């Protein structure tokens, strides 16, 4: 979220029960250093008072075209805002915006805007499903508005569950960051990321696997999406929350990983192979559970396919390919060998024995190995490491753009 510091965001709030969630959006953006101007409709002010948003943003709140000293304020904000978010966007608000009405401050501002528009609809499921609402949202999308959600979940008390619930504040904040950060060469780029371990079946309850958590791959997927890319994340078993906006493909075995990568590979402008596939699998998977009472167990293991090496013939022309090398000795030499043998543009290497830099930890210390040399990075969080890796990749994408 540091990338939104100093940016100017207008947060429009219309009159729905989800207005309380907009307070969290205002707080998160303000804490990240953004300048947030809240604009409330008259109905919104019935749900959450303007003083709440003023306390959260540290700025005056606009509620009317007729506020003293606010002459032509909608024109000024429309010119100065870098992004306008309307959350919640009720069915009534959506209809008025689609028809180009300007009967209050918020709708007048939206007509005067130059900035991108992000709408987070929130309404009863029947109102959302109504053809008029669907037509209005389609019209706004066609005009360039970004429509986020709604989610399916519990609605107002007594209304059960259905599509119409406003997306959570964290998702709105993530989309704000993406819209403010999207830029060449990431905007529209297709990025394929692999993450996590794979598991090879021994019997119905046991597997051969490794200690990978998937954190590095998930951080890369999130960072690429925040920069404006269209991201597919192929993930082995992991308990991590999927990044917002990212298409997630779940896999179990190394063979599953190979198939999923093969399906997505032809369109990928960037391939980030951060997964740690199992290098070996049992030569024979058993159909029933092995029991300790059966005595000593001897395993015959055979190598799995090398997924990364197998991508060479199917890569998109001009694609950038990044491999990862988790080693225990001769780390840089092993990374350089991998770079050449697998026809890679960059290898992210790290030492599995170094405290704070191996699997199952939130930090990493990596060295970026390319044909023109190696760059050692300090110990940092995996989110920070993902940003540093993609900064380096960005230079490669720019050269090929």
What keywords describe this structure?
Rossmann fold; 13 helices; 401 residues; alpha/beta; 33% helix; five-stranded parallel beta sheet; 21 strands; 23% strand; elongated; eight-stranded mixed beta sheet
Number of domains: 2
Widest sheet: strand ordering: 12-11-8-13-16-17-19-20
The proportion of residues forming helix, as a percent range, comes to: 25-40%
| Mean pLDDT across all amino acids | 92
Please describe what this structure looks like.
This protein is an alpha/beta fold. The chain folds into 2 domains: 2-181, Rossmann fold, CATH 3.40.50.1950; 190-400, 3-Layer(aba) Sandwich (Rossmann fold). It contains 13 helices and 21 strands. The chain has helices at residues 19-31, 44-47, 50-57, 73-80, 91-98, 105-112, 125-129, 131-142, 169-181, 215-226, 254-264, 331-341, 382-400, and strands at 8-13, 35-40, 83-89, 117-121, 146-147, 151-154, 161-165, 190-195, 200-203, 206-208, 230-235, 247-250, 270-273, 280-282, 301-303, 320-327, 346-351, 363-364, 367-370, 373-376, 380-381. The strands form 6 sheets. The chain has an 8-stranded mixed β-sheet with strand order 12-11-8-13-16-17-19-20, sandwiched between helices. Strands 2-1-3-4-5 form a 5-stranded parallel β-sheet, sandwiched between helices. Helix 5 crosses helix 8 and helix 10 (215-226) packs across helix 13 (382-400). The longest helix is centred in the last third of the chain and has 19 residues, at 382-400. It starts with 7 loop residues before the first strand and ends with a helix. The relative contact order is 0.09. The model has no long low-confidence stretch (mean pLDDT 92).
